[in-house]
C-alpha cells in the first residue's frame, strides 16, 4: 500500500502525477491519494473578495486563518475544484477513482481547536473563531472497502470534528495519519520543490536523507509549509510507515521517482 499526497501549491503537474498513478495501478500497486488545495483556495478567495490570511504560531508554524467564510471557500476549492480535477484525470486514464472529503463517512475525524495562538505585530493574540484541527482517527474500514472493491480513493480536507463541524486540517499530516492507519509501506509527499531544501529556495541544497533522530532539527530550519511535511514524515514513521519521501510533483513520473528515492528520504 502506498499513500501519495499531492501538494496543493502552484506548479504541481497533475497530469504527470496521474499518468504515473495510472501506470502503477495497471501494474497492480494499491494507492490512496490525498491532496490539499492551498493555491486553489487562494485563487478562489481572491475572486470572491476574500483574500487569504495566515496565522503564524509562536513556534513559527504558518497556517491558514480559517473563519467560517474562509472555510466555505476552502471546501469549494478542495472538494469542488482540486478533488474533481484529479478524479477526472484518473478516470480519463481508466483508473476508477472515487473522490471523498475527510467529512464523508467520518473518514478523518478530530477535535476542533478551541483557540489558536497567533503572533501579530510582535504580540501573541488568541483567535477563537478558527475552524482548524488535526486528524486523530481515520476510518480505515471505509478506505479498505473501497480499495478491495477496486476503487482508488482520492481524499481531501476538510475533516469532521467530534462536534460534527468541518475543520481545516493540514493535508500532509492527514496523509501521514492515513498512511499509519492503513499500515502503508510508503508515504510520498509530492510538492513543487525537489524535496527538503537546506537553503530554500536554492534547489541545489536538497537534503537527500533525514534520520529519525534528526527530524526535530529539520523542522527547525525547514521553511514555510515544508515544516508541516517534515512533521508529517516524523508522525508517519512513528506510526509504523516504513519510509517517507518528499518528492517533486513537477517531474515526469513523480511517484516512481519518489519510490526510487529521488527527493528527501525519511527512514
Describe the structure in brief.
With 267 residues, this protein is an alpha/beta fold. The protein is built from eight helices and 16 strands. The strands form four sheets. It has an eight-stranded mixed β-sheet, with helices on both faces.
Relevant terms:
Carbamate kinase, 8-stranded mixed beta sheet, 16 strands, 36% helix, 4-stranded mixed beta sheet, 267 residues, alpha/beta
Structure, described:
It contains eight helices and 16 strands. The chain has 267 residues and is of the alpha/beta class. It has a single domain, classed as Carbamate kinase, CATH 3.40.1160. It has an eight-stranded mixed sheet, sandwiched between helices. Helix 2 packs across helix 3 and helix 6 runs antiparallel to helix 7. It is globular.
Per CATH, the architecture is 3-Layer(aba) Sandwich
The CATH superfamily is known as Acetylglutamate kinase-like
Strand order of the largest sheet: 5-10-2-1-13-15-16-14
How much strand content do the residues show?
A: 15-25%
Under CATH at level 1, the class stands as Alpha Beta
CATH topology assignment:
Carbamate kinase
Uncertain stretches of 5 or more adjacent residues: none
Alpha plus pi helix count: 8
Instruction: Summarize model confidence as the mean pLDDT.
Output: 95
Instruction: Give the number of DSSP strands.
Output: 16
- What number of structural domains do the residues give? 1
Rg is 17 Å
Summarize the biggest pleated sheet.
8 strands, mixed
Query: N-to-C terminal Cα separation, in Å?
Result: 16 Å
Amino acid at each position: 500500500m502506498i499513500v501519495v499526497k499531492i501538494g496543493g501549491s502552484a506548479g504541481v503537474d497533475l497530469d504527470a502525477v496521474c499518468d504515473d498513478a495510472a501506470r502503477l495501478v495497471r501494474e497492480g500497486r494499491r494507492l490512496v491519494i490525498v491532496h490539499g488545495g492551498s493555491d486553489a483556495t487562494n485563487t478562489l478567495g481572491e475572486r470572491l473578495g476574500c483574500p487569504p490570511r495566515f496565522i503564524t504560531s509562536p513556534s513559527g508554524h504558518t497556517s491558514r486563518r480559517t473563519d467560517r467564510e474562509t472555510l466555505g471557500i476552502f471546501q469549494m476549492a478542495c472538494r469542488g475544484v482540486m478533488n474533481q480535477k484529479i478524479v477526472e484525470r484518473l478516470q480519463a486514464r481508466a483508473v476508477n477513482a472515487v473522490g471523498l472529503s475527510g467529512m464523508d463517512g467520518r473518514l478523518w475525524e478530530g477535535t476542533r481547536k478551541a483557540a489558536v495562538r497567533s503572533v501579530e505585530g510582535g504580540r501573541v493574540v488568541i483567535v477563537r473563531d478558527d475552524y482548524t484541527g488535526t486528524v486523530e482517527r481515520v476510518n480505515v474500514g471505509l478506505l479498505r472497502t473501497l480499495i478491495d472493491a477496486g476503487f482508488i480513493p482520492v481524499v481531501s480536507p476538510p475533516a469532521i470534528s467530534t462536534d460534527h463541524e468541518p475543520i481545516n486540517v493540514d493535508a500532509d499530516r492527514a496523509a501521514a495519519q492515513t498512511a499509519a492507519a492503513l499500515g502503508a509501506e510508503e508515504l510520498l509527499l509530492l510538492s513543487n520543490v525537489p524535496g527538503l531544501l537546506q537553503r530554500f529556495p536554492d534547489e541545489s541544497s536538497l537534503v537527500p536523507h533525514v534520520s529519525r533522530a534528526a527530524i526535530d532539527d529539520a523542522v527547525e530550519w525547514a521553511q514555510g509549509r515544508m515544516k508541516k511535511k517534515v512533521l508529517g514524515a516524523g508522525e508517519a514513521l512513528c506510526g509504523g510507515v516504513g519510509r517517507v519521501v518528499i518528492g517533486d510533483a513537477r517531474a515526469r513520473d513523480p511517484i516512481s521517482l519518489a519510490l526510487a528515492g529521488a527527493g528527501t528520504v525519511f527512514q
